[in-house]
């Protein structure tokens, strides 16, 4: 979830790894993949401007789902490509998901050393 003023923005079309999530790598070691996902997103965004589509519908927690970009990069697509999210209702991201799994990126990989 991104914060813009007092508005929480959820990236539409994905279910991102939550900051509190723990993953198990192929070596069965557990690791805080949610913390790594949050850090990766922060590095992508840094101090750059995020542009989101207008409109959107608020969920039960008040977050509005929007498609957002930073520097021309679709944030949802990038998160799926890096292994930090699963597509939800976006068939165009299936190849990105397969590539992330095959390359063992993000949540699909082993615990960092």
Question: What's the arrangement of secondary structure elements?
Answer:
Blueprint: E1 2-4, E2 7-11, E3 14-16, E4 23-24, E5 30-31, H1 33-45, E6 50-52, E7 64-66, E8 68-70, E9 73-74, H2 75-81, E10 85-87, H3 94-103
Parallel strand pairs: 2-7
Antiparallel strand pairs: 1-2, 3-10, 4-5, 6-8, 8-9
Amount of beta strand:
25-35%
Name the overall outline.
globular
Q: Tell me the radius of gyration.
A: 14 Å
Spatial strand order of the main sheet: 1-2-7
Assembly classification: single chain
Quick one: biggest sheet? Answer: 3 strands, mixed
Secondary-structure-derived class: alpha+beta
Question: Low-confidence parts, pLDDT < 50 over ≥5 residues?
Answer: none
Distance between the termini: 27 Å
Number of beta strands: 10
Question: Roughly how much helix do the residues carry, as a percent range?
Answer: 25-40%
H-E string: EEEEEHEEEEHEH
Mean pLDDT: 91
Number of helices: 3
